[in-house]
């Protein structure tokens, strides 16, 4: 249910978003930016990613690229022993934490609300990055 809520939020509240499906993932990108999604959904394990045991019935993971400041506020300590199978808990992304990506499995209640806020933050980061690239192209044309 929360995945539908999140996708509806993205579709209705965040303009110029492109959704691409590939390898069992849903990638959400700003406009024509095809290199770096600001949010992804993973709904099943694959040969490269099985840390969250996503083959459980109804389990999915949301991955979100947030700002360094938000990331540091969310994870102020040096904890390294994350249980990536735990539901409804924000964690550093198992592979992309260095790029300030977070993840959460099946967010609900307050975590779902926070997830939507983080997605909006990630959207504006992606939008800003896209606009800077476009402005640079215009200057160099």
Task: Name the features.
141 residues; alpha+beta; Aspartate Aminotransferase, domain 1; 6-stranded antiparallel sheet; 3 helices; 6 strands
Tell me, what is the CATH class? Alpha Beta
Strand order across the largest sheet: 1-2-3-4-6-5
Q: Hey, roughly how much beta strand do the residues contain?
A: 15-25%
Q: Which regions are unreliable across 5 or more consecutive residues at pLDDT < 50?
A: none
Annotated CATH topology: Aspartate Aminotransferase, domain 1
The figure for the number of domains is 1
The proportion of residues forming helix, as a percent range, comes to 25-40%
State mean pLDDT (0 to 100 scale).
94
Q: Secondary-structure element order, as H and E?
A: HEEEEHEEH
Number of strands: 6
What can you see in these coordinates?
- The structure is a single chain.
- With about 140 residues, this protein is α+β, with helices and mostly antiparallel strands.
- The protein has helices spanning about 1-15, 70-75, 110-140; strands spanning about 15-20, 25-30, 40, 60-65, 90, 100-105.
- It has one domain (about 1-140): Aspartate Aminotransferase, domain 1 (Alpha-Beta Complex).
- A 6-stranded antiparallel sheet has the order 1-2-3-4-6-5, covered by helices on one side.
């Amino acid at each position: 249910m929360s995945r539908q809520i999140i996708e509806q939020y993205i579709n209705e509240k965040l303009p110029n978003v492109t959704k691409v499906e590939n390898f069992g993932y849903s990638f959400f990108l700003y406009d024509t930016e095809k290199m770096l999604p600001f949010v992804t959904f993973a709904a099943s394990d694959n040969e490269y990613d099985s840390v969250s045991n996503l083959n459980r019935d109804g389990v999915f993971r949301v991955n979100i690229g947030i700002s360094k400041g938000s990331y540091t506020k969310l994870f102020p300590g040096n904890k390294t022993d994350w249980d990536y199978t735990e539901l409804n808990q924000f964690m550093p992304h198992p592979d992309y934490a260095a790029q300030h990506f977070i993840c959460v499995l099946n967010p609900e209640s307050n975590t779902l609300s926070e997830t939507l806020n983080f997605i909006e933050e990630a959207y504006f980061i992606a939008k800003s990055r896209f606009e800077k690239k476009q402005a640079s192209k215009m200057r160099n044309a």
